[in-house]
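Deliverable D4.2, example record:
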Amino acid sequence: MSLPFEGYRHFIAWATCLYSPDQYSSILIRPLLCHLDVILGASGSDWRFRHQLPVIISVLKWFHEASEQSVPQIVAPEAFYSEAVSDLSTEALYEDLSRWKEANTLQRSQQFFLSAHPFLLSAAGKRNLLQVENQLQMVQAATATLSYDAQQRGFVFDPYWVLAIDRKHMLQQTLQKIDKAAPGELRKQLKVVFKGEDGVDAGGVTKEFFQLLVAQLFDVSTGMWVDMGPNNTLHWFNPSCAWNHDGFHLVGTLLGLALYNGVLLEVDFPVAVWRKLLRQPLGLEDMVDKETSRGLQQLLDYDGNDVEDIFCLMFEQTQRAIKKVTKEAHTRGLSLIYFSTAARKREICWPDASDLNNNGRLTSAFCERA
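Output generated by the structure prediction step:
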């Protein structure tokens, strides 16, 4: 469906302005999802040949993009989940995903792929599909080392990447071994061995390894993180930690390895980190400090021209290190350090990554590995 840009823009403006969030879901999204479920349910294995699917899903995609680009989001992502898509067999979904990955740009524009519309698939369905894809990659990585052993008169290969470490030096040894490992080795199934222990890794040892390592990595004493949020339960990048990029790389690598090996970890990042990983825009609603968020929103909503006198705000950034709180003033090239009427929208809506000191570089070091 090639709607001209102006037509698309007006269509989205109409949909987002006319309806409340409840109406957006009940009037625009649910009828399309019901129709989609009926078509998929009646099609069986021939769903790829139903000409109605691209039309319905294209319109749903418009609504989904409009919701995602709105601040805050109009409806939750779960509002777009299709039961019929999630009920498709994992084999059919993986076949569609493989075809989509192998297709070039022209083929993707001419053919229809469900995998190009992941917003329709539930979180459980995505997890199952990811596990199947990871298991196949593990098999491919293992068979890539296949060789013939003349003494045994047969082919041999090692299906695992064995990580033998000491509990006392787990963090340092893990970092060293990951740095030395070839990419092909990391794609094998992980098998953890604690030196001096007789436990056989049937999945439980690997899970324990990740849990212990994450507990060490996210300890405030490492200097990499500052605790924030309600009861200090969330972790954020310490902007003063410019000396431990290897540590942030390790965190990203370990989270990727855990997901790749089917281990779910309890990592308490603010929503902003996950939105950055998804390349989604950030807004005031993503701030952990809700009091500051409300204050900035009040500043944006204020219509007067006497911001300096009413709010008495300064360009000041508060940083919490391990044992102290520091404040740094920013002039941003302005003649006055006080928050001015002319500067308020620019400073709140378009913050520069450099204002966060090293946070921009640290989150990039983490995200490129996660």
